[in-house]
Structure formats: structure tokens, C-alpha cells
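for the writeup, i need someone to sanity check this before i put it in the appendix. the sequnce is what the collaborator sent (i think, or maybe the updated version? ugh). structure was predicted straight from it, no edits. if anything looks off just tell me and ill rerun, i have time this weekend
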Amino acid sequence: MNIHQRSFRAATGRIEANHVSIRLGHGSSAFEAVSDASFDVSPGEFVCLLGPSGCGKSTLLGALAGHIKPAAGVLSVDGHPVKDPHPERGIVFQHHTLFPWKNARDNVAFGLKMRGVKRGQRRLEAEKMLDVVGLNGFAGRYPGQLSGGMQQRVEIARVLVNQPRLLLMDEPFGALDALTRLRMQELLLDIWGQFRKTILFVTHDIDEALLLADRIIVMQAQPGRIREEITVPFERPRMTEIIASGEFMRLKQHCLHLLHSDRRGDTLPRLSPLGL
């Protein structure tokens, strides 16, 4: 069964967070990074965690990946508590983690190799996935021979080739220049449209969250808490032109107010579904 056949399996990737609190550090230096966070993500949904640095976005993502254990509450995927890392929960970081001594094809195929997939099949599937992310013809290039955007494309392909239940993305385009970032956002929307994987995407960029997400979970800091959930009303497929629309600007203003009032301690009325 090839990667394209496997992509049409029954919908999976439901995330449930029930009263999750996470503490970091040890002894007297320990602190509460996330406090009593509860939310859920439906299979195939694209959700952004939006908030300032230090609000616990990446910590929550790390807990979902299985790298951090909550101090309280339960994180589960498809009804099973998250206990350890697993390829079915793929994660993409801001800076690539590619093996510099392996070419793009072998980087993408690495997970398949660890699962015992035969060499010919894993090369075929890796090259198909490189084609999906727009890197047809670059399979033999090494990370050092690729631009930052191309490195992130390889990173995404390396995660997707394992057919994860969900894709966890920790500011994956934050280190890219503005134009490359926009192109990567468009690519991600196209990939999500093809595979409909559940995506939980961490960002502090309001435009990025509004362009990409079905729903935005706004977080506040000290300790990290969920401030508000916003349903994004724009139809799909989305084009970057929506950034100039009036509805987009109204939603952006509300998000800005939420983030700024967090620092002032103000309270704001909830936004209507249409951002009015």
C-alpha cells in the first residue's frame, strides 16, 4: 500500500486536552508553564495556538509530541493518552533537524528505514513525497545545498511520509524571509488540502494564524492559559488575498486587543463568529 492509498484511511487525529497543567524546571526553579488548559481538535482540523513568547504554546506541543509529561490532566490522541514520542505524531520545528550527511531523499526515507521498509520502496515513497512538497529533482541534494525554505520542505516531507495521525508544527516558518514564508504557507495549505491531516500549529504571528487556521486558540502568559477560541470564517481553499479583506482586518484587530490586553490585565467582550 503506497503513501497515497494510506492517506485515505479512516479519519484519525482527534486531540483532547483535559485540564492540562505542565511544570518545567526542578526544585526552587520550577514554575507552571501551562495551567489548566482544556481544548479539543477534530480529525482533519487545522488549529493554531496563538500567543506571545512564554505563554506555553511550544510546551503544549512538546507534551503532545510525548517529550514532556503534564503535571496534571490528560492529553490524548484518538482516545489514547499520550505517554511517549511516536511517528504517528509528527513534529516540525522552526529550525530543521535534517541529517547533514544524508541527502534529501535519504532524510525523508529515514523513518521508513527504521520501520523496516525495503530500500526500493522507501526510495520511491520518499521521492513521491518530495514531489508533493515541490522538490522534484532535488532528491540528491544535501541540506547544506538547499535554501532555508527548501530545508523546511524536506522536513515536512520527512514527517508526512510516515503518515502521522497529526502534524505538530512549532513556528516552522519563523526563521524564513517574508516572501519565502508566504510561499511556505501556501504550500502548507495545499498539502493540508490533499492529505487532511490534523494540524496543530504554533505561531505568534496573527496574519499567519488567520490565513491558515480553521480555529485559533489564543493563549496568555504567566502562567500559560487559554484566553479565547476564535473560529475563522473564511472559506477554503484560501488565497493570500484575504489578508486585505475587511473581515480579516477586524479579526486581526480583535486578536491584537486580546494579546495587548493580556499585558494590561484588561478584559474584552468575545468576538462574534463573523468578527464583527
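Helices lie at 3-6, 57-65, 104-114, 119-132, 148-160, 178-195, 206-212, 246-264. The radius of gyration is 19 Å.
thx in advance!!
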